[in-house]
Amino acid sequence: MRRAGTGGSLPPRCRLSRPATKRKRDDDSQTYPNKKAKVGSPQGLPLQTGLTPATTATLGSLAVNTASGGIPRPSRREDFEIAIICALPLEYDAVTLLFDEFWDKDGDSYGRAIGDHNTYTTGHMGHHNVVLVLLPQIGKAHAAGAAASLRASYTRLRLAFLAGICGGVPQAGKQRIFLGDVIISSDLIQYDFGRRYPNRFVRKDTIKDSLSGPSKDIRSLLAIFQAEHGREQLQQRATGFLNQLQIKAFQKKRKADYSYPGVTEDKLFESSYRHMHRVSPTCACRDCQGRLDPVCDEALRKSCIDLGCDEQYLVLRERVVTKQQLGDSGGEQQPMIHVGSIASGDTVMKSGEDRDVLAKEEGVIAFEMEGAGIWEEIQCIVVKGVCDYADSHKNKKWQDFAAATAASVSKAILERYAQKDSAPKPEAPKLIHHWAVPFGRNEDFVGREAILHQLLERIPPGANKDDCQYTALEGLGGIGKTQIALEAAFRIHGKYPDCSVLWVPAINATTFESAYRSIGRRFDIVGIDADKADVKMLVKTALSREDSGRWLLIIDNADDTDLFFGPARLSDYIPFSKTGSVLFTTRNHQVTVNLNIPKCGTYDVMEMSRAETTKLLQMNLKEAQICDADSTSGLLEFLADLPLAIKQASAFMAQTGITITKYLERCHLSEKSSIKLLSKNFEDRGRYRGVKNPIAATWLISFEHISRTPLAVRYLKYMSFIAEKGIPRSLLPLVTGTDELQADEAIGILKAYAFITQRGTQDLFDVHRLVHLVMRAWLEENGEQEEYASEVMQHVAKQFPFPEHENRDVWMSYLPHAQALLNRDACSKDPNLLLNVGASFIRLGNYREAEQVYRQAFELREKLYSLEHPTTLDNLDDLASSLQLLELYDKAEQMGRQVVEFREKMYGRKHPDMLRSMKHLAWTLWDLGKYEESRQMGQQVVELIENTCGQEGSRSLASMLTLSSMLYLLERNVESEQVGRQAFELAEKVYGRKHHDTVRSIGVLPLVLCRLGRYNEAELLRRRDLELDIELYGEEHPITVSFMSGLCPILLGLERYHEAEQIARQAFESMKKVGSQGRLDTICSMNDLTSILPNLGRCSEAEKMGREALELGEKVYGREHLVTLSAMNALAVALKCQGKHEEAVTLMEECLRSRTRILGSSHRKTGYCRNKLEEWMASDG
């Protein structure tokens, strides 16, 4: 061979010859790789445009003939018998350079098994088809998972290599190991020291576990390499492959440097010499004296040059000295190969002293991290290039070269690995079809034709000629997935008699393997009954063969992700054949996702139609049991049209003879009664023996699966106390120590099991009604109900805001859940939540509900504190207000007087809360017709505010509104207007134009202006008020309707009668919908119409409306109530309009007498009556 720098041959970097030591010469940077390369030259090689003939000749003597010799391209995964596994990308890159040809240049045509997440590279080395896999991460666990997936996809592998880099033991008995040497495993010893440093290590397991020995095949191959002759031959072949690798890397312009780093870079320090800062006054290294003393993390990341490791502590080694003395005349350096035990663990060995101890105790010669994970899954040979000495003085300069030598030795071993005649393949089925379904046909099967039609188009074997079909039926437990699959099985069997139909229950690992064993026996698979037979793999292999015929495999109850993708990895045993089809039934969407079943192959099984469920319920009942159609509909609604629950109910009724009506009554009797019925077992030939049939038990199985995710369980328990529909994500608690990602996962699991459903893209969820019920029963049975009820109550009380217009979306979405929670008998009520819920009902105009909630809050506060406690009085005041809105004035007066009495004792008469309570009581008295007392209290409020608040500028908005209201009550209209305008202007300035408090601050202003005859101003304010009320509350809210009615007297004063009638009728119709809680406003609207219609010439119609209003007013409020007197006044005018003079005068005179007594002779309404009578008398002569 020509030497570097002569005749155009490649420089030393492209050969395996030992590089020359540094010499003083001008051009040595071009000849020797240790010098800086020219710009643009990869890996320090001189720029070349191609290989010269001389170079080609040189390579011919070095390189190995790797022509494929016409090796045919494999047609399927079963044609691959060799695998190479790499843990690092740099190891993978080195191996790819030694492939003779790649089979996947146009994409992966071989696919992979379901559940296999590996990515494969396929090709051939010599006469062997090879599959190459790169681990996703380093370490035993990742290696084991990848190896298991590899074995599942490539079922006929005979030999695997774990090729890469390792840490070597420099002195192992008589063996002297140097950097760049290659270690071949004779066996593996599993250890787990943790990350080893001279000062510390963490041992996970005190037991050193030796893995099982290699197979006979591997032992006989390794025996050759332990002999010197075999090892010499292997080294020679590896040298040739290494040259080939280096040349390809150069041609492909790879970034990695595969050249020999040089003997001067091979440095071994004494095992006790620490890798640390030598001068460091501030870090932990300053205290490092002995082997257990600390070293800082920064030092561990730096090189020996950076830290100034002293080379006087280098170990003088004969082989290194010899090579240094040989200089450039030593010829090629072959990689030295060592065969021995390798220590494999999860962590990197970084302690020279610990390295030596373990090497001496166990006889190991190298350390690596992945072998133990792969060894138990696939018998393999570990081939690793030594890149460091497993001490703290790590050196990355050797990694690329070590990876290259390991790859070269692996290919050299593979060259010696003889191809065998094909092993006998599992026997093909003797019969072309088999029926292995454990159930008879369900004669009670009803409906489901739409989903069956879709299934029967997809699942027949061969429906997709290019793939094995994978299909999933998803849905809640008890929704009918198994029965649909069973019916599909019988229809496939009838339509395709040459198709085997096979059924596997995946309830647990035992039922799965038992069904596989039964299938193996039907197909007469050789070895299926052997003591240590891998039953699942035998069946998978047999069914994966094309000559197994057409088959449909139904895997029922594939619900448990741990069972399919955990240690048992049942997903690895699902067969794949283009003449096969697999149908899964699962209540867990995550299983479908992990199995990589496409969306087009996933069918959500929903509730049956009402017609179908009615037929299913009535099918086995007698006519006398089903006579009540309403009860049938009610029961199906209660059972949420769920097939299993319906069948359970039907079985119970058929057994006991009770009617549907009686069964429904028992369901509604109590939750305990409902649960008892849902827990009744029943005989069902279409379900598995030993498995409980009741719907409650069915869901508890799902609950056990979910319980592996504690947050999901917590959410489900939490949801069982609130309403089942429209649960906002924001109302779910974020548990301490969890984050949004974990919350997403928990919600995803509940959705996967169909326990909850999401409403489109909204963060709103619905819980299935029966799941809701069963979950609460489970909590009670396990003694957790009281604890969770209290926790949920506290959380909802904390989250529920005081209702404002600005947060309307929030409290509206929370309200039904707070209601449901407050209605639970097991929940201790929270008074703050009661108050906020009551205020929400007031906002919505639901005064009856508000009164009930306020009453609960008051009773609870009175029990906790006393009647005279400030918060109790606040509750009582709220309750009195709600009673006033309900027009229960007697009760409102009673409670209002209590509030005033106790607040006067506590605060005196000048406190703002006291003044507000007096105002409420004054209006209650007015509505009761106690006008004199009402005016007296109003006068007291006015005086107190004027005396207490002083000048106008110092009054609060609340005090101004109270004052304006009381001045209006006292008919001091000018003063009322003045104060009211000040309040309105202040509110608009503070809150803005559209704020709720600004709307309320308009107060009595329109009414005052109407009294003063300033109708145009009154209309502007009232319409603005009405516009904002519609925006805030909606058109049918009682407040909106009341203010709409308030437009009528204004329009009447403006003589816009047609418009006034339209508004009055709209208000009247709305008030009739409200019912009893709107009687006062209803009579007022009737009075408005009675007053308006005569002006439109419709006196008869006005008389009719007037008589109804008078009758209603007298019945509800008495004949001398002001609203009744207004009806009397309007009716008298309508009668006069029709010429009924005598009756009109009689009514008007009565109205005059009553108003004089109640309002006084000088009141404007009294004056109206007097003036009308005088007018009528004058007109009649």
Set down the secondary structure blueprint.
Layout: H1 28-31, H2 53-62, E1 82-86, H3 89-96, E2 101-102, E3 120-125, E4 128-134, H4 140-153, E5 159-168, E6 171-172, E7 175-176, E8 182-190, E9 209-210, H5 216-226, H6 228-251, H7 297-301, H8 304-307, H9 318-326, E10 337-344, H10 352-362, E11 364-368, H11 371-375, E12 380-388, H12 399-416, E13 435-436, H13 449-458, E14 469-474, H14 481-495, E15 499-505, H15 509-522, H16 535-544, E16 550-556, H17 561-565, E17 580-586, H18 589-594, E18 602-604, H19 610-618, H20 629-638, H21 643-656, H22 660-669, H23 671-678, H24 695-706, H25 710-719, E19 727-728, H26 740-752, E20 756-758, E21 764-767, H27 769-781, H28 785-799, H29 808-822, H30 831-844, H31 847-864, H32 870-885, H33 889-907, H34 912-927, H35 931-949, H36 957-969, H37 973-991, H38 996-1001, H39 1005-1011, H40 1015-1033, H41 1038-1045, H42 1047-1053, H43 1057-1074, H44 1079-1092, H45 1099-1117, H46 1122-1137, H47 1141-1159, H48 1164-1179
Parallel strand pairs: 1-4, 1-5, 5-12, 8-10, 10-11, 13-15, 14-17, 14-18, 15-16, 16-17
Antiparallel strand pairs: 2-3, 3-4, 5-11, 6-7, 8-9, 8-12, 19-21, 20-21
